[in-house]
Amino acid sequence: MNGEIKLRVSNIEKSFPGVKALDGINFSAKKGSVHVLCGENGAGKSTLMKIINGIYKADAGEILIDGKVVEIQNPIQARSLGISMIFQELNYMPEMTIEESLFVGSWPTHKYGNVNWAEIRKRTIELLEKENLDYSPETKLKDLSVSDIQMLEILKAISYNAEIIIMDEPTSAITQKEVEVLFKKINQLRDRGSSIIYISHKMDEIFRIADEITVLRDGCVVDSRPKDEYDIDMVIAHMVGRKLDGNFPKEDIKIGEKILEVKDLTNQGNFKDINFHVNEGEIVGFAGLMGAGRTEIMRSIFGLDGYQEGEVFIKGEKVVIKNVKSSIDKKMVMLSEDRRRYGIIPVRSVKENVSLSSLKKFIYGGKLHAKKETDTIQDYATKMRVKTPSIETSIESLSGGNQQKVILAKWMLTDPDILILDEPTRGIDVGAKYEIYKLMSELSKQKKGIIMVSSELPELIGMCDRIYVMAKGRIMGELKRDEFTQEGIMKLATKKTS
Ligand SMILES: Nc1ncnc2c1ncn2[C@@H]1O[C@H](COP(=O)(O)OP(=O)(O)OP(=O)(O)O)[C@@H](O)[C@H]1O
Ligand SMILES: [Mg+2]
């Protein structure tokens, strides 16, 4: 019956080399209920969920389903117990097709065990049609947008009729429209009695969808109660263990010369006639709904995609950006929205991930000055509050949000003149967001030009000097700081294009 406890974990402990990730966790999820888990980056949320999904084994403690102790050795066993999980990191194989990815690990088979491809095709087409996804089942994942891949993951996880569904930041890469689809589905799942465990850093989302909220800090549960007994400030205070002033550390900085100018840029099918500029010391925002073409423009300027028409000027000089190297040579860098695909070098350490793009900095007389390298990177890690046992730790063992801080540090260290930040605070906890804003302010004081693409209007309004608003591949308007309002921006973002 709804309201009964479906899943309970008791006294769960888990250590990794150098960190105690979970320290005696007690937590339970009810039937027909959405339980939100919040906490700072590195608090232990994903680790706890991975234990429930059989990816990690707890060092101590028990998991109970319907009151009975269960041993969960691997994800396949978890699935047979009715548990499915949507992962925070999009881990997909680019060459896989949609139909393969939907059924991997649970292939429908013929009587004698060989894979029933006809059935897979049929079910894939049904699902794509039902969800209005306009793709062929044979499309490769590498040809899909990040948001479509994420949406497929979500659909896959809820198509098993699982009773316990874990969603680890499911909305970090989907469009607002897809968020609505997801929330509708969550409500249906809740009504049919499923237990949903939902992890998110987005407060508005949390308060919309939660029935219960549990806050983790440093591997412990700090508080757990029904949503109605909480408000946003209280959740934040529990998360970070102190009160935060919610203000943006925006400073009044003298705006300098034009540092980047883009004229009549067009990339067929993505954006058209784009004109904008960024001055020294300026933070320029790009607002718009997901799919408006903001990321596409940035990718073109940065040399990932290129453009058919138009011109780019850096410090007044016309530049031809053929690839990423040429834009880095021009001291322009980009923090990309899909960090998995373009951000990290997986097996390497935190230190290597930061320093590889700027090794030149540490070479004197042909030799690498290792101490200087270590000290500089340690300094950045401390400043940005990267939670890691040491900078020698492999980047993959960091929590999602902390990996992101490392990538940001990497670009900062290359000492760029122009920084393009595509969703720089996505997946980052409230405390660390503030640190990133502070860094942005500091960089603009050093006369850097910063572009911030963001889906979160409050941070655009809080941090930018000017905002360009895009819709359907075009710039619909430009607002100055004293003209910013949420309504004003939304109006332009949803304005019909001619
Ligand atoms: N495979 C691993 N090896 C070593 N350490 C790990 C591993 N996975 C997680 N950790 C560490 O355990 C701690 C908890 O990480 P976890 O990923 O659970 O955090 P999180 O709450 O999900 O954070 P985020 O909001 O950034 O996703 C972190 O200090 C992290 O570095
Ligand atoms: Mg996580």
Automatic annotation (TrEMBL):
<dbReference type="InterPro" id="IPR003593">
    <property type="entry name" value="AAA+_ATPase"/>
</dbReference>
<dbReference type="InterPro" id="IPR027417">
    <property type="entry name" value="P-loop_NTPase"/>
</dbReference>
<feature type="domain" description="ABC transporter">
    <location>
        <begin position="253"/>
        <end position="497"/>
    </location>
</feature>
<protein>
    <submittedName>
        <fullName>ABC transporter related</fullName>
    </submittedName>
</protein>
<dbReference type="GO" id="GO:0005886">
    <property type="term" value="C:plasma membrane"/>
</dbReference>
<dbReference type="InterPro" id="IPR003439">
    <property type="entry name" value="ABC_transporter-like_ATP-bd"/>
</dbReference>
<dbReference type="Pfam" id="PF00005">
    <property type="entry name" value="ABC_tran"/>
</dbReference>
<dbReference type="GO" id="GO:0015749">
    <property type="term" value="P:monosaccharide transmembrane transport"/>
</dbReference>
<keyword id="KW-0813">Transport</keyword>
<dbReference type="GO" id="GO:0005524">
    <property type="term" value="F:ATP binding"/>
</dbReference>
<keyword id="KW-0547">Nucleotide-binding</keyword>
<keyword id="KW-0677">Repeat</keyword>
<keyword id="KW-0067">ATP-binding</keyword>
<keyword id="KW-0472">Membrane</keyword>
<keyword id="KW-1278">Translocase</keyword>
<feature type="domain" description="ABC transporter">
    <location>
        <begin position="7"/>
        <end position="243"/>
    </location>
</feature>
<dbReference type="InterPro" id="IPR017871">
    <property type="entry name" value="ABC_transporter-like_CS"/>
</dbReference>
<dbReference type="InterPro" id="IPR050107">
    <property type="entry name" value="ABC_carbohydrate_import_ATPase"/>
</dbReference>
<keyword id="KW-0762">Sugar transport</keyword>
<dbReference type="GO" id="GO:0016887">
    <property type="term" value="F:ATP hydrolysis activity"/>
</dbReference>
<keyword id="KW-1003">Cell membrane</keyword>
